[in-house]
Design brief:
With 235 residues, this protein is an all-alpha fold. Helices cover 74% and strands 0% of the residues. It comes from Williamsia maris.
Amino acid sequence: MSSEDESVPARNPRRELVEKQILDQATRLFAEKGYASTTLQDIADATGLTRPSLYHYVANKDALLSRLVSESTDTPAAMLHEINERTDLGPSEKLRKMATAIALNQAQTADRFKLIIRSEAALPDEISRTFQQSRRHVLQEFVRVIEDGVRSGEMRPIHPRTAALGIIGMLNWVAWWHTPGDPDADRAAAVQLADMALRTVAQTEVGPSTPEGPERAIALIRQDLDYLERLLAQE
């Protein structure tokens, strides 16, 4: 065996299983009771461990919460950036994939997301900064793809940040109303929400062949006039 192989830590399946149980129970308790009201003893009791045994797996409550926050916020931001960097997709398809990814993540990890939102005011400063930074990264990626869509003519000339915040809010809300556990149902909900997200910004009558500029402005005015004529004709 080479020295490089010897430097790789051996997997410990039992430890990984116990750590997962601790994370799952901490997620549930933080979501139900709030971070501030949950104690390490609560987590130990829920996992069937003694409190001294729990310290073999986690240093303190802050370290446990930090890991949960990191896994719940850094991963989605990284996924969005990876999609946005693709050169084989246009803005609309990027937005669809990004919205699907966020909705699916929230649907599958609802308890973790809810615990972060519920405990946001009580988060320790360092963890709070990490959480806020990840949220900004998510928003920036959505703003970026909407700006690209507006410039290309695939999306209506809307305020990108406002549109991004609206879409993110809709996608996040799935954590409250969707019941996770069925992979097919999780994906179906995510796909439908992604379609709804795209429809809120998609250009419906002025096609993508009309980029941002005077010609597009004229086309949009004509579109509004056609809509007004249809309304007047109904009276």
